[in-house]
Amino acid sequence: MPKLILEVTDLKREFRMGAEIVRALKGVHFTVEAGEFVTIMGSSGSGKTTLLNILGCLDKPTSGVYNLDGVNVSNLSRNELAQLRNRKIGFVFQSYNLLARTSALENVELPLYYNSEVSAKQRYDRSIKALEAVNLGDRLHHLPNQLSGGQQQRVAIARALVNDPVMILADEATGNLDSRTSYEIMALMQDLNQQGKTILFVTHEPDIASFSSRTIMLKDGKVIRDSKNENIRSAKEVLASLPVSEDY
Amino acid sequence: MKFVNLFKIAMKALLRNKMRAFLTMLGIIIGVAAVITMVAIGQGSKKSIQDQLSSMGSNMITIRPQSNQTVGGGARLDASSVQSLKLEDVTAIGKQAQHISALSPAVTSRGQVIYAGNNWPTTIQGVYPDFLTIRDWPLKDGILFSDENENNAAKVCLLGQTVVENLFTSGEDPVGKIIRFNKIPFKVIGVLAEKGENAFGQDQDDIVVAPFSTVQKRILAITWVQNIYASATNESATDDAVDEISTILRTQHKLKRGDQDDFMVRTQAELINTFSSTSQLLTVLLTAIAGISLVVGGIGIMNIMYVSVTERTKEIGLRMSIGARGIDILLQFLVEAILISVTGGIIGVLLGILAAQLITTFLSWPTLVSQSSIVLSFLVCAITGVFFGYYPAQKASRLDPIEALRYE
Ligand SMILES: Nc1ncnc2c1ncn2[C@@H]1O[C@H](COP(=O)(O)OP(=O)(O)O)[C@@H](O)[C@H]1O
Ligand SMILES: [Mg+2]
Question: A86, B405: Cβ pair inside 8 Å?
């Protein structure tokens, strides 16, 4: 039986807005096994980001239990959470969040600076390998503003990969990209998943969700559907079938 | 986190915004350079006054008459009108004092010297030959006057360089010539080496030196002594010498216990201290002004660091999301602040030294860059960095990662 990476039980998250209480998550249940490629879908405001932030140890639930890789995260201190984010989680954001005026290589190296077990040589080698894995081996010293949106997102993915995390969390990672570039990113995600990475991918586009192996649908802070994908599309094939863009 | 990593992160963050880092540094650079230069000017003038004063003879002790009577509202009589010192006092000191190596009474008078149609207003000083030992003043030419000259009140004299230049305009040898001081003929038997200006800017070479008795009796026609000069056997003996002289003079003058001294004994060291303390005050004032500019520089750092924390909120959020702990963020901003202030400090020190050099070269003010001022302003810099960098850094470290990430 495959290992459980994620286990959330009755997860609730409430935000206090003055006198009002916003209930963003109203009791979420699910588990994720190692090697799954899960998309979390739902309309805007359904609680996807809130959920992902908790799963990524950036936020704490108001109540409920969250086990990550066998560890109950609810009991951890701020510093321990930081350590978890550093070692077990790779985050990919919609807006890339690369440091400006900082080369692709240095951006990818960043997480390893916060890991004192990694030497300078290892940091350099691993970052280059991560960039090669996202096909940016020839763009090591480019600055973010010298890269296209898709390339910037691939740098961000390399940065998420460099610490060899147990799972990758992506929040609308294709939200800022055109469809062709989105498919390229999805192809990359599928490759990574093939190599054994667990992926949780937040999106509101059904088209994108069709590349994953499982879809969890959120509505008003609750899971309304959780289903395996019957026919998973291959992003590579979709890319190949697209007419060659004139932009290239 | 490893310190090298911390250092590299802070360094990269600064290099990403070189112009801003430099402008922030500018406050510190100017502050430190000002401190170094101001202290150098203060110390330099102090040193030059000290040097000039000790060139007058560092073991020199001066004894002057002083009134012990008060008139009217408590004001003392003018020293020059007091006649409390006598030649017997000199003899007594010479006989009894253990800690002095040379001793001379002195009287001075102003007058006109004439030689071959050249006319020059100057001062004549009547002293024992020992006076020149006390003042550490060698002869350039000729001989000193003898005890016999002293006993006979002989009309012989030594000339200072300025007097020589103004009387012997055609460059003849003054030794052996006869000059007139207030119509009295004097035979020139020697010429004094050049001494230059003293600490008060007076030309020490504008002088005629003659035997004490000659000036006292033939020119001034007085019975008292205006000043007594002595030399302590060495610098550490000056205090003992002063005590000794005071005791001898009190006995000589038959002063009772509780009576005030009718004389004043001053050492060169005291004179140096008096002047040093004035220039010390100058140094303190200049340093205070410069210190204020350093604080202003520090506030500049704090200001920029606050702006920087706000501006880089998203960066902080990102760093936290990839595993930076609060302490990592705090240290990063702190190290950035310290790097700015310490680099600014180094540049400021170099600039300050350069400025001091330029001031000496172009304004010919004496300057002295002291090691302590370098070390001190450097420490102040580092402390400024920590102090003014801490609060912004702490603010950064307490940010909530999600809030920070969402910040636009
Ligand atoms: N920090 C917050 N403070 C108050 N309300 C919040 C906060 N974050 C999210 N919410 C609310 O929680 C709900 C879910 O938000 P979010 O998870 O961002 O939705 P999604 O990512 O699915 O669009 C929304 O109603 C949103 O307004
Ligand atoms: Mg969202």
Answer: no
CA–centroid distance, residue A235 to ligand 2 (Å): 23
The first and second tokens of residue A155, run together, are 């740098």
Asked whether the beta carbons of B85 and B93 are under 8 A apart, the reply is no
Instruction: Provide the ipTM.
Output: 0.93
Whole-number Å distance between alpha carbons of A153 and A98: 9
List C-alpha distances in Å: A137 to A105, A107, A142, A167: 10, 14, 11, 23
Domain boundaries, chain A: 4-241
Mutation for testing the B interface, residue in A113, A115, A169, A171 having most B CBs under 10 Å: A113
pLDDT in 10s for each residue of chain A, 248 residues: 678 999 999 999 999 988 999 999 999 999 999 999 999 999 999 999 999 999 999 999 999 999 998 899 988 999 999 999 999 999 999 999 999 989 999 999 999 999 989 999 999 999 999 999 999 999 999 999 999 999 999 999 999 999 999 999 999 999 999 999 999 999 999 999 999 999 999 999 999 999 999 999 999 999 999 999 988 999 999 999 888 765 54
Q: How far is the CA of B393 from the centre of ligand 1 (A)?
A: 29
Residues 6 or more apart from B40 whose CB is under 8 A from it? B352, B353, B356, B359, B367, B368, B369, B370, B373
Number of other residues whose CB lies within 10 A of the CB of residue A126: 20
Query: Does B322 contact A102 at a Cβ distance shorter than 8 Å?
Result: no
Cβ of A62 closer than 6 Å to ligand 1, yes or no, is no
| The residue to which tokens 């102003």 are assigned | B110
Q: List, in order, residues 6 or more apart from A4 with CB less than 8 Å away.
A: A31, A32, A33, A34, A67, A70
Q: How far apart are CA B22 and CA B20, in angstroms?
A: 5
- Of the candidates A53, A102, A113, the beta carbon closest to that of B5 is on A113
Residue type, B256: K
- Which ligand is closest to the CA of B406, given by its number? 1
- Cβ(A94) – ligand 1 distance below 6 Å: no
Decide: B328 and A114 in contact? Cβ < 8 Å: yes
Partnered with residue B348 across adjacent β-strands are: none
Minimum-distance ligand to the CA of A20? 1
User: Burial of B184 by CB count in 10 Å (0-12 exposed, 13-18 middle, 19+ buried)?
Assistant: middle
Q: Is A44 in the pocket of ligand 1 (CB under 6 A)?
A: yes
Its CATH architecture, for the domain A4-241, is: 3-Layer(aba) Sandwich (3.40)
B273-279 own/partner pairs: CB under 8 Å, 24+ apart: B275/B46, B275/B49, B275/B50, B275/B53, B275/B199, B276/B46, B276/B49, B276/B50, B279/B42, B279/B45, B279/B46, B279/B49
Instruction: State pTM to two decimals.
Output: 0.73
